[in-house]
């Protein structure tokens, strides 16, 4: 057995300075990325079980429900991609929704341990952190030599305006760590002799990405297709592309087979299963990017806090560009500076990146161009592409998210070039430093806005509900559960994650059939009871109840098989305050006098009415 170096040969030689610097840089990037992730989500960390994201509490409740349902489905042997627990009696096809199945399964133990709201927060924070670290790994190990350059590029991409905007409860879109992994494994297919193994790895990664963010996977595939085509057709790369093509196609073939096998059932459900739909429940004109938004500042940024933010996005979760004029100018300057010093191979890469950013920017404008909130008569390319299958289910505004990694790459390449060959004059170096600061400092993120949300009633948390609902029976809160009234799914998520058992609810927040022209819609088609309760809760006005109204409501109760109607003392409204007193008086007019159970008002529905 060899002696210890400290005893046999004295102190070990010091690590090479470059290695020490690189490790120190890696650690700094990790700490900065972690600090930013916690900073952005800090409002929720105060108490994840009682705090909610102000501008998107409905999506937060949905993802919490998906985590609870997915873990429950796996541990109980149920189908994680289709459920009858919501939208009674038709059920919901989760394969055409954002089911985040992989997250639900992997984090199921944590969900059972700390509950869906806290697990949601952990995943959201880890998404932001992992996006920064995986991009940093790809840049520093494969694309640039400077750790500083990799850090600048990665941190910009991970905390770009679009990512921070989607951190308002979107666990799918904040999973940006998938993109650099897909890029890495796609270009690994060029290697000779490893096409089978590399194809299998990419196929598994595609299946994982589909289960977490299918729309994001689709956009990534489109972006990589455009980039590879433009890059390969450039004269400087044609010979290399021609030589790599056989291995590349073999690997892609294996990828398609592996992903197809793993996703065969989800894809069947998506395109041919029950409760499927075509298109989406969102208007592509509304959910398209305003041309002026590219030069605007986002609300959750230093510039936004200073009053420079705008309302050019359809809602605060969709600020997909919002780079600001200084960053746009810096990007152009970086592109020109890189182009002037680039060899033909690097120019081909820059050309492909430029074409990619231009195409996706124009496509993000949607069917009709908008400028500073005003619609024009100018048709856009998406007006034609948006009619194609699959494309018609995408929101065009989100195509602008592809531009942020392009900008991040250009920033990284520029810093790398400056580090390799420092400017001869200090004034030039200072100009670059000022340019980066002016462009990036205003975009530094600020914490997400959060509020305290209404607690889940003790009637649910104590398990009292089980005395008023038969096994697999139907309970409904009022107002009935939809995106703006998410309480039903919040209650159900609590019951599932705390092993209390199952109860079904009518309605819910989901995408399903029933929209115009056979397209999808958000939630179920409204019926009389849901419309009456929405009117009371939203306006505070008790609707006029006639014998005809009672008959229609009884028909709804039979359709939904409702056994128990529950009104909490505090009802959560995602967009407005809910008038609980008006709901109580409306429920009394429809169902008779309620009984008080724990901290809720409750109506038992006679068997004859259900």
Automatic annotation (TrEMBL):
Keywords: Membrane, Transmembrane, Transmembrane helix. This is DUF2079 domain-containing protein. Coiled coil: none annotated. It comes from Micromonospora zamorensis. Residues 80-385 form the DUF6311 domain. The chain crosses the membrane at residues 27-45, 94-114, 120-139, 146-164, 170-188, 195-212, 218-236, 248-268, 321-338, 350-369, 389-410, 430-449. InterPro entries: DUF6311 (IPR046278).
